[in-house]
Amino acid sequence: MSIKTKEDLFIHGLRDIYYAEKRIVNALPKMADKVDNTDLKAAFQTHKTETEEQVRRLEKVFEQLGKKAEGEECPAIEGIIDEAEELMDEIKDKDVLTAALLAGAQAVEHYEIARYGTLCEWASELGHEDSRKLLEETLEEEKNTDKKLTKLAESQVNKQAA
Fold first, then answer.
1. How far apart (Å, rounded) are the C-alpha atoms in residues 154 and 103?
2. Is the pTM of this model over 0.85?
3. Residue range 56-81: average pLDDT?
4. Average pLDDT over residues 63-81
């Protein structure tokens, strides 16, 4: 995609996060299968359902903009997920693996928070208020997921891995 305008940049950002969300939907079940902590397993399963809704929300944004919903490879998410998959193969201690996967999940959340925050701002600047509202809804979900993961890390997972 040739990026010449801020609108082009906005569409590029949407395609990046659309790709990322679809990739995350596929990664979460694998991560849930690898952890022993029932609270974290449930959090991953819940977030998969939430992420599926976020994909649908992005599809609505594309529709509002008169664009086809399509992804553009997101090297950042690829790197985070590749690292998590490598750790699943390398780490034998279940508690340490659980801590590693929780940390990886938070890296994903932090990326998404950064991306959605920017997209919300650009949507407002470009006059796409309906799109901004949808993107903001997802941004709040991502922030809440990050808070839940932090609470799990601090109250259980990191202590069990010590």
1. 11
2. yes
3. 96
4. 95
